[in-house]
Design a protein that fits this description.
Elements (H helix, E strand, L loop, with lengths): L6 H11 L4 H14 L3 E2 L18 E7 L2 E7 L7 E7 L4 E12 L2 E9 L12 E9 L4 E11 L27 E4 L6 H10 L6 E10 L4 E3 L5 E4 L2 H16 L6 E7 L16 H10 L6 H9 L2 E5 L2 E2 L22 E4 L9 H14 L4 E4 L10 H9 L2 E6 L1 E3 L6 E4 L2 H14 L1
Helix pairs in contact: 2-4, 4-9, 7-9
Enzyme class: hydrolase
Cofactor: Zn(2+)
EC number: 3.4.11.-
Length: 428
C-alpha cells in the first residue's frame, strides 16, 4: 500500500482525465478556480481600475486565450512584484488535418499531422480517441471529447517485417494514419460524426482543432504503488500543481500568478504561446493605471521572479550512459532544478538561490538535472518567458520516464511535492 497521502495525485489523475487537450485543460482549470472563488475576465472587456480589497483573503482572477490560461491573486494593496509559476497545457500527439477523410484498401482512415516530438512507436496498436474544439459560424467555441475507442494506428505484423525488433523508422505521412472503419471514405463524414458527438450542426462548424487522445486510465504501479503512469504528465503535472498552489496562496506579499501556455511543444510562436505578449499584457493590466506607467511596470518586473516548471528526464535504468554521470535524478526524491550553461534552461546562480529558497520554504527534498555535454536535450518556456519579460527565471520540473510517450511515468509522491514547491515560490 502507498506510504504517503496520495490525495494530490488522485486529484491529478482526475484533472488529466478531464483535460485531453489544452482547451479542455483550460476549461477544467477554470472550473476549479471558479469553485475556489476566482472570477474569469474577458481580455476584450474593461478590467477593474483598482482591485478590490477584502478583509479575509485576496481576490482571484483568471483569463484564457486559445488553450493558454493565466490566473492571479491580488488584494488591492500596493505590491512590489510578481511570483509567477509557468507551465504548458499541450502534449505531443497527432492533430487531425482540415480535410480528414482518407483511406486505402477498403479501410476508412483519418488524416493526421504529427504535433510536437512524438515517439511514433508508443502510439501503435493503442485504442485512441479524438478530442478538441469546434469553432462555430458565430465565433463561439464548443469542446468535444469522444471518450471511447475510435482510432487505431496498426503495427505491421512481425511476419511481414522480420526486422521489426531491429528498429523501424516510420514514415509520418504514410505509416501513421489511423484507421476508424471499413469501406470507402466519404468527404465530410468524420466531421459530421464529431459535430454530432458535440451536439451541433456540421454546417455551422467553421474551424476545428482536433487531436488523437490516448485512452489508458491513469494508474499507480508497483508493489507499494510508488509510481504513477498516465498520458500528459508532460506537462499537466505542472499546470495542476500551479492551480493547487494558487488556490492555496491567499496570503502573500507579492502577486502570485499561474501562467500555463499552449503550443510549447511546437516552439511557442503563436499569439497565445510563451513568445506572445499574452503574459506581459496581463501583468501590465494587473498593475493598472490610465497611462502607460512604464516606470512602475519596470520597477515591478525588476522585483519579480518566475519559476518555469516542466518535466525532465529521470535516469533510465536501462540506459544510464545517456545521462550526465554526476546528476542522476530519480522519482521519489522531489522536484529538480534544471541547469544549462547554454541557457536551454534558465538557471544561473540567482535562479538556483530562488529555487532553493522556495524548496526550503516548502520543506521538500530536491534534485539537480544537467544534460550530458554531448546530448543537448530539450528546452522549456523558461528562457522564452524570461527573455520576453526581462525577468529572473528558474527552470524546474519532475523527473519522469518515457517523456512524450503515450504513457509516461513518474514518482507517485512527486506531483504533490511540485505543488508544495509552487506554493513555496508564492509565499516565501
Amino acid at each position: 500500500m502507498p506510504r504517503f497521502d496520495r490525495s494530490h495525485t488522485d486529484d491529478l489523475a482526475a484533472f488529466i482525465k478531464a483535460s485531453p487537450t489544452p482547451h479542455h485543460a483550460c476549461a477544467e482549470a477554470g472550473r476549479r478556480l471558479e469553485a475556489a472563488g476566482f472570477q474569469r475576465l474577458d481580455e476584450a472587456a474593461a478590467w477593474p481600475e483598482e482591485w478590490p480589497l477584502t478583509e479575509t483573503k485576496s481576490s482571484g482572477y483568471y483569463t484564457v486565450r486559445d488553450g493558454s490560461i493565466i490566473a492571479w491573486r491580488v488584494d488591492g494593496r500596493d505590491f512590489d512584484g510578481f511570483r509567477i509559476f509557468g507551465a504548458h497545457t499541450d502534449t505531443p500527439t497527432f492533430k487531425v488535418k482540415p480535410r480528414p477523410d482518407t483511406g486505402a484498401a477498403g479501410w476508412k482512415q483519418i488524416a493526421v499531422e504529427v504535433y510536437g516530438g512524438v515517439p511514433h512507436q508508443t502510439w501503435l496498436d493503442r485504442d485512441l480517441s479524438v478530442a478538441g474544439r469546434l469553432v462555430m459560424r458565430d465565433g463561439s467555441e464548443v469542446l468535444v471529447h469522444v471518450d471511447r475507442p475510435l482510432l487505431r494506428i496498426p503495427r505491421l505484423a512481425i511476419h511481414l517485417d522480420r526486422g521489426a525488433n531491429e528498429g523501424q523508422k516510420l514514415n509520418a505521412q504514410s505509416q501513421l494514419t489511423p484507421i476508424w472503419g471499413l469501406g470507402e471514405p466519404r468527404d465530410g463524414e468524420f466531421l459530421e460524426f464529431i459535430a454530432a458527438e458535440a451536439g451541433v450542426d456540421a454546417a455551422d462548424v467553421f474551424g476545428h482543432d482536433l487531436f488523437a487522445v490516448a485512452l489508458d486510465e491513469p494508474a499507480y504501479l508497483g508493489k507499494d504503488e510508488e509510481l504513477f503512469a498516465a498520458w500528459r504528465l508532460d506537462n499537466l503535472t505542472s499546470t495542476h500543481a500551479g492551480i493547487a498552489a494558487i488556490i492555496a496562496a491567499d496570503e502573500t506579499d507579492d502577486v502570485p500568478v499561474l501562467a500555463s501556455f499552449n503550443y510549447e511543444e511546437v516552439g511557442s510562436m503563436t499569439y497565445s504561446g510563451a513568445q506572445s505578449p499574452f503574459l506581459e499584457s496581463v501583468l501590465r493590466r494587473i498593475i493598472g493605471g490610465v497611462d502607460d506607467r512604464y516606470e512602475r511596470y519596470a520597477q515591478v518586473i525588476a522585483a519579480s521572479a518566475m519559476m518555469s516548471s516542466d518535466t525532465g528526464n529521470a535516469i533510465h535504468p536501462n540506459y544510464p550512459e545517456k545521462h550526465e554521470p554526476g546528476h542522476r535524478p530519480i522519482p521519489g526524491k522531489g522536484p529538480m532544478i534544471k541547469v544549462s550553461a547554454n541557457q536551454r534552461y534558465a538557471s544561473g546562480a540567482e535562479e538556483q538561490a530562488l529555487f532553493r529558497r522556495s524548496a526550503e520554504a516548502a520543506g521538500i527534498p530536491w534534485q539537480t538535472y544537467v544534460n550530458r555535454n554531448d546530448i543537448p536535450g530539450g528546452t522549456t518556456i523558461g528562457p522564452i518567458s524570461g527573455t520576453q519579460l526581462g525577468m529572473l527565471t528558474v527552470d524546474v520540473g519532475l523527473p519522469i520516464l518515457s517523456m512524450h510517450s503515450a504513457r509516461e511515468l513518474c514518482g507517485a509522491e512527486d506531483p504533490g511535492l511540485l505543488a508544495d514547491l509552487a506554493l513555496g515560490l508564492f509565499t516565501h
